[in-house]
Design brief:
Blueprint lengths: L12 H14 L5 E10 L2 E12 L2 E6 L7 H15 L3 E8 L4 E8 H15 L22 H12 L9 H30 L21 H12 L4 H5 L6 H12 L27
Parallel strand pairs: 3-4
Antiparallel strand pairs: 1-2, 2-3, 4-5
Helix pairs in contact: 2-3
Length: 283
């Protein structure tokens, strides 16, 4: 999901990059945001979801994570959208905020339909066996999944890896991280939903918190007016404000008719993210 940029207290380079990426793909066309898409078979809705951005023959989805494998999700969105609009082909884009990288591929209506059909054949198979994997975080059955439970029990009974004296041991531990995170998040969500529905979880209770404050757009109009009336130096106000790169570019273009020079757009320090190297296999 693309965050609400009007509520960002400071520039978020991942969001800014994704925003510009969407604008470049859209090329002035109207974008559908958070569009609900549903895939049907024989009059029954098999699944539904919300695509971050749909524009022309493109579906785009933003992820805060560094990397992942979200093609199944986007293929499902594509199948649903092509089923509704009778389009024959769509290009899917998964935008990773941390690495500012896009995974892009094109899929036809027949390919998407075949892909979704094969997935549901596996899901509905009586012989399927649950297996813990990096997609556990999306599963509604996470708390009661035997696959996740077996992996957790095996890891704990065998002794969690704590001595990382070789790269192979560190790699083995790293592979468990997504499953453990999914299990922890699943327990947290289940605990919260149980309490919210009036249930009881011994030792825990709900605590109500105020929403995060943010500065409304009306503030700037009011400050500009007050600065004029009181002869206050408006540059002192501007020095206290932050603005995202896309908005700065648009504002400069609107005022001067020119593109914002790169000298006004310095970059912060480089960051690093750990990605799975699928070109190498460690047994």
């Amino acid at each position: 999901m693309l965050p609400n940029r009007t509520m960002q207290s400071a520039p978020n380079t991942g969001v800014e990059w994704a925003y510009e990426y969407v604008l470049d793909v859209a090329k002035g066309e109207e974008c559908l945001l958070e569009e609900n898409v549903s895939y049907e078979r024989d009059g029954e809705v098999l699944y539904s979801g919300y695509a971050d951005v749909i524009v022309g023959n493109h579906i785009l989805d933003y992820k805060e994570s560094s990397e992942g494998y979200y093609r199944p999700q986007l293929n499902g969105y594509a199948a649903a959208w092509m089923q509704k609009t009778f389009k024959e082909e769509l290009t899917c884009h998964v935008l990773y905020g941390q690495t500012q990288r896009a995974d892009v591929w094109t899929i036809t209506a027949d390919e998407a339909d075949e892909y979704v059909t094969s997935i549901f054949e596996i899901v509905n198979s009586e012989n399927k066996t649950p297996t813990a994997n990096e997609y556990c975080k999306w599963c509604a059955n996470l708390a009661g999944c035997s696959g996740v439970n077996d992996l957790m029990v095996e890891a704990i009974k065998g002794g969690l890896i704590v001595n990382f004296d070789c790269p192979e041991r560190l790699s083995a531990a790293k592979k468990l991280v997504p499953i453990f995170k999914a299990w922890i998040d699943g327990v947290d969500k289940l605990t919260k939903s149980t309490l919210e529905s009036g249930g009881e979880v011994p030792g825990y209770r709900l605590s109500e918190r105020n929403g995060r404050q943010f500065v409304s757009n009306d503030f700037f109009a009011e400050v500009a007016m007050q600065s004029t009336v009181r002869n206050y130096d408006i540059t002192k106000v501007l020095e206290q404000c932050s603005i995202t790169v896309p908005k700065a570019k648009a504002l400069f273009k609107d005022i001067t008719g020119n593109d914002l020079p790169q000298e006004f757009l310095p970059r912060g320090n480089k960051t690093f993210a750990v990605l799975e190297d699928k070109t190498k296999k460690i047994d």
